[in-house]
Amino acid sequence: MKKTVFLGSIAVAGMTAGMGMADTLADVKARGELNCGVNTGLVGFAAPDANGNWAGFDIDLCKAVAAAVLGDPSKVKYVPTTGQTRFTALSSGEVDMLARNSTWTFSRDTDLKLDFAGVNYYDGQGFMVPKDLGVTSVKELDGATICIQTGTTTELNLADYFKANDLSYQPVNIDSNAEGEQQYMAGACDAYTTDISGLAATRAAFADPENHVILPEVVSKEPLGPAVRHGDNNWGDIVRWTLNALIAAEEYGVTSKNIEELVKSSDNPEVQRLLGVSGELGAMIGLDNEWAKRAIQASGNYGEIFAANIGEQTPIGLTRGLNAQWTQGGLLYAQPFR
User: Fold this and answer.
1) How far, in whole angstroms, is CA 82 from its chain's centroid?
2) Are 25 and 291 in contact (CB under 8 A)?
3) Domains in the chain, start-ordered, CATH in brackets?
4) Could you tell me which residue ranges the Solute-binding protein family 3/N-terminal domain spans (predicted)?
5) Is 114 exposed, middle or buried (0-12, 13-18, 19+ CB in 10 A)?
6) Cβ(61)–Cβ(18) under 8 Å?
7) Which of 31, 127, 173, 201 allows an S-S link to 44, with CB 3.0 to 4.6 Å?
8) How far apart are CA 99 and CA 110, in angstroms?
9) What pTM was computed for the model?
10) Residues 22, 9: Cα–Cα separation, whole Å
11) Are 70 and 29 in contact, with CB atoms under 8 Å apart?
12) How far is CA 14 from CA 1, 161, 233, in A?
């Protein structure tokens, strides 16, 4: 009996040691660069310009994490991933995190052994059609050809929705948004389906966006958020609380422009903890006390990032909607910094 217990203890100790071996924070610090898995190209969310400089809503989250961990938002290597390659890139260690309009689902969280660090965009699946097709509802697409990215929740939602409504369709499989845009514009499919934010971003890149209509139906819930590998809890905490820092900063009125003044003058205890004026929150996750301050300074708070990349004054033209702060009727809510 004692021998069995002893061997069991060794097995448990071995498992614990194995689980503790993952230290993404140490790897990132040693490398001096954050490897961030992003979209292959989705204007407003993640896309390189003619000089190879990446910009977008998801890119700014990568920058915030790099600023928090490395002290410099430019210390990021952007790794383009498709719907089919993104999770393999993360699980294999090719990237340290994904910031790539990926939906948080049960199977991805459990079967793929990923940890989602929160939701940075509440979305839903929609459909876009050429205006001259004369279609005003998804239910008029019976028998249509539909462009769809493989390896996505979109693919499964499409099948479920059309089956539930006794509709038929012919899928035109694509690997990336760029290919989807090309196929759709070439007339290879009657409609393009993906997250509504993605449709808005795709349409904004057209020469004639006014000639393309996003249909009114929202056929799914798509909580999009950053993901990390399962088993490295500290790194997951860093990514999660960096996102929370951006959300909380907007709620408390902390911006990239007034942050230095608030460090000196704010009497809000939560703001003081957030900005490292009081408490030792940084030490709890292996960082210094100004990690969140640097994350916010990188590209601004959540509202600044949203407005600059995908908001109503950009070609993407998205309203805040569900992505408004909870105090403004939305779902955006950061857990307390205390």
Assistant:
1) 14
2) no
3) 24-120+225-328 (3.40.190.10), 124-221 (3.40.190.10)
4) 33-262
5) buried
6) no
7) 201
8) 19
9) 0.90
10) 21
11) yes
12) 20, 46, 18
In this structure, the chain runs to a length of: 338
Which pair of structure tokens corresponds to residue 100?
């790539």
Distance set, CA 192 to CA 136, 144, 149, 164 (Å): 14, 10, 9, 19
The residue type of 35 is N
Nearest residue to 148 via CA among 191, 107, 186? 191
Query: Among 245, 229, 236, which Cα is nearest to 298's?
Result: 245
CB atoms within 10 A of CB 116: 21
Distance CA 264, CA 50 (A): 41
User: Is beta strand 34-39 parallel, antiparallel or unpaired with respect to 76-81?
Assistant: parallel
